[in-house]
Here is the input.
Amino acid sequence: MQKLLVVFFLFFSVFVFSQDVNITNGWKFRAGDSSSWSSPKYNDNDWSPIKVGSVWETQGYANYDGFGWYRLHVVIPSSIKEKAFLKEKIRFDLGMIDDGDEFYLNGLFIGRNAGKNTDVKQGEYDVQRSYLVSINDPRILWDKENVIAVRVYDHGGDGGMYAGKYGISMMDIVDYIRINTTNDFEFSDTKHVSKKIILESTSDKYDFSGRLQIIVEDPAAHTEVFKQLISADFAKAKPFGYTFKANLPDNKSYTVSYSFQESRTNKAISASEGIPYILTPKAAVSPKINGANVYGVRPNAPFLYKIPATGEKPMNYDAIGLPAGLKVDKQTGVITGMVTAKGNYKVKFSAKNKSGIATKNFTIICGDVIGLTPALGWNSWNCWGLSVSDEKVKASAKAMVEKLADHGWNYINIDDGWEAEKRNDNGEIVPNKKFPDMRSLCDYLHGLGLKMGIYSSPGPKTCGGYLGSYQHEEQDAKTYGDWGIDYLKYDWCSYGDIAPKQPSLHDYKKPYKVMRDALNKVNRDILFSFCQYGMGDVWKWGAEVGGNSWRTTGDINDSWGSLSGIGFSQDVPAPYAQPGHFNDPDMLVVGKVGWGPSLHNTKLSPDEQYTHISLWCLLSAPLLIGCDMSQLDDFTLNLLTNDEVLAIDQDALGKSARKIFDKENIQVWTKDLQDGKKAIGIFNLNDKSAKATISFSELKLPAQLMLRDLWRQQNIGSFKNTFSAAIPAHGVILLKGNPATAK
Ligand code: GLA
Here is the structure.
């Protein structure tokens, strides 16, 4: 049997959280910045009360970015020391902060950015802020009032002390234990899983003994399918490893939980995670042509399109009815050339191998609009951050050609971090040492049938502090054209220093108009992607200013809070999606991500990842893979190669799904498709598996529907009036409903 190696997923370390002093209430807030606001002597009587656990935007500070201070007066009783087993350190849990923090206790500095102590402006969203202080530290005033002051910096979008856990507690012995779940799950087949769990101690002082319990649960049926209790002894130098082997009755969502009970205190720590399961059927050996059925090009612009076809290679491709000026390479399926006359050209693609032949009708629309369906590609940011290099880009391109291009993926986009420190003597932008030759990189990608994207800012500096295009827009657009660039992501960043403090609609549009005009002078089809986080309701004017897509939110990360916060708020911009102009809820966070040189597996559970891809496809979002594609595992590949799911994203009608139902954390989003059918996503936003029942009449769907499960690529039957399904926690069922065949 083939051995499937599937990545380890998320490190849901849910440490048992015992809180000695509650600090969830009583906070006060002031927007702005002053060093005197850390002082215990400062009088904050006139500050406004604020809730921690929600962003400040929803509490009277709409659209506020920049500095703000939170203050809390709290007595720390010495009795908590007496009760504790360990009498060493006290922990301040200050929740998650968007984006940077500086923590002061009684006017004295304790730490910054979760202890990383980087610049406050470089803080990371979605990271729990927990600070440890020795109980003998004079900054703590035992049995007296203490003033906690937190200086917060928000660089855009939502801001504040918005989520996570809050409390003051004595650090306990179990806080030295880690349940390390980072090993891969291994499958001998879909039903037999094994995984090695490691118990680690971070303490030089203490050895541990106790019991490790492992339970695999079917969360829908509430049944345990596997349970084991193991004695475990370990110390810092001697971790305890244990490989469990479980049988999974079905190919569906299971969770595994680990709990270690420490024998001295009887306190336990626990962690849990989802077990990856693959739904996408393997592609057949016989040919199948995938991808959108429409493609836009402007007259006289260089044309490049590779016919995406799965099936055993070698394959012979053809395209009958190509307009004058285009030719197809029959070995690679790459169509190149130039169309001079505007018009809709009906073409018939074919792909043939030793097992058969497939054909597909395709329309080339030569006109003013490009990017008729959302871009499918890769972007370097969510994996490599500023450490992107020519080598890494080429490795991604190679993986795309080998594993993804047959499903329609084709853009390779370099994000921030490619620019040199200075322009050349002619004022032209030049790449830094990591990119020896941009033109030859473009040629290399084009030679593979792929396209190349690049990144800049309308400001003098990009968000990563590299050179932007300010006052060099025409020159940069020309340089991009000369290199052979096909996609430009244009990120507001330091343009905030150029625009007025309270920008008008005109001010928001201006830098994008300037670059639009510059790109119009270049004879290449360059997709134009606006990145300004949704300011000024960009979805209302993005198309008019010539954007092919526009970010609707701040930056995404690989947490459920971020993913669900962004994804499920996309009903507002939804009506504005149209062919050539799409809402962009930010890039994908599946696979190995990291925003820098070291990567980790996404912290999203397998079901959260199914939700991510399903929702983004329903929204007609550009799909930009944000992981290291040279390390694509089977589960991630299953997410990115389901042609029926991708077809929802690439549907030529170009509409976004709308949210048509939202009750008890079950949401239903439906999307109209070009063939008159509907894509239906039923999402369970609950932390537990739930049975969802949808009523067709309540959702204004036809009374009878033939439904197909798109992830499994299986018809599930004809349903009258209602449909019910058990949906895993944070999971989805993605359906295609066909009223015509419903009997
Ligand atoms: C902003 C964008 C990200 C990325 C970085 C690069 O944060 O939103 O997608 O491009 O800048 O610095």
User: Anything to note?
Assistant: Residues 381, 415-416, 462-464, 491, 531, 555 surround alpha-D-galactopyranose (CB under 6 Å). The chain has five domains: 2-14+175-275, 28-171, 288-366, 376-649, 658-738. Residues 505-520 form the longest helix (16 residues). Residues 1-17 have pLDDT under 50 and may be disordered.
